[in-house]
Design brief:
Blueprint lengths: L6 E5 L4 H12 L3 E6 L2 H10 L4 E4 L9
Parallel strand pairs: 1-2, 2-3
């Protein structure tokens, strides 16, 4: 599957599997939407991944999801 220049949403992007997934997708050329609760970590990760952008959300909250 070709993912270069596709926008992909990754939840839990500040740590663990979400972070690893976001990094891999960015390496493959995707534009990654980083969704996580922690603003500081989210912004740090965004600076590491070219073409990514951040969105603050707690997906356990139905309104934010």
């Amino acid at each position: 599957m070709e993912i270069k220049d596709k926008v992909i949403i990754v939840t839990g992007a500040s740590m663990g599997i979400g972070l690893a997934t976001a990094r891999l997708l960015a390496e493959k050329g995707a534009k990654v939407a980083l969704v996580a609760r922690s603003k500081e970590i989210r912004e740090k990760v965004s600076n590491e991944l070219p073409g990514s952008f951040v969105y603050a959300a707690d997906l356990s909250d139905a309104v934010q999801a």
